[in-house]
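Postdoc handover notes: sequence design on the structure in folder B. Input tokens:
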């Protein structure tokens, strides 16, 4: 799984997060935009494609910021987070229940997917090199 850390244009202390749809797996939990890497695809191409499909935005995918593995009862997820920036488009919740721009401390107040908990801890603690 690849996921995007996308700063809000004009306020780089906030990042885009989305709430999963009701009814499916991890229903209504929060996550970073992204999805599965298909065979033959690079992480960067998969992330750009997922964000085009899910949000209708064009992104430039930058550095790998974080990676971790989590086992759910139904699925083992290897999650890789990439620093991204906007190229064009206004985000629309095409594949999500809701979208928000939040600071990392605000994110920790929401119910996130379990795989994201250590990621959020590192983000809040400043253990990710966001600007380089
Ligand atoms: N995009 C994204 N997915 C995440 C994050 N954290 C996390 O555990 N996941 C999990 C939730 C899903 O089980 C899976 C994402 O797969 P997906 O977005 O392609 O899955 P989906 O909702 O279309 O369908 P599915 O899980 O029901 O097969 O990874 C995250 O931060 N971003």
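Designed sequence:
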């Amino acid at each position: 799984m690849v996921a995007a850390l996308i700063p809000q244009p004009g306020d780089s202390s906030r990042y885009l997060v989305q709430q999963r749809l009701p009814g499916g797996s991890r229903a209504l939990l929060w996550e970073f935009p992204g999805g599965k890497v298909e065979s033959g695809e690079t992480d960067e191409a998969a992330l750009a494609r997922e964000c085009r499909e899910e949000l209708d935005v064009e992104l430039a995918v930058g550095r790998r910021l974080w990676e971790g593995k989590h086992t759910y009862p139904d699925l083992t997820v290897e999650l890789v987070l990439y620093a991204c920036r906007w190229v064009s488009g206004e985000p629309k919740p095409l594949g999500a229940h809701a979208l928000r721009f939040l600071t990392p401390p605000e994110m920790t107040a929401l119910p996130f997917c379990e795989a994201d908990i250590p990621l959020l801890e590192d983000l809040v603690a400043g253990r990710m090199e966001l600007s380089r």
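Context for whoever picks this up: Residues 1, 3, 24-26, 31-32, 34-36, 75, 77, 79, 113, 115-116 surround 8-OXO-2'-deoxyguanosine-5'-triphosphate (CB under 6 Å). Don't rerun without checking with the PI first.
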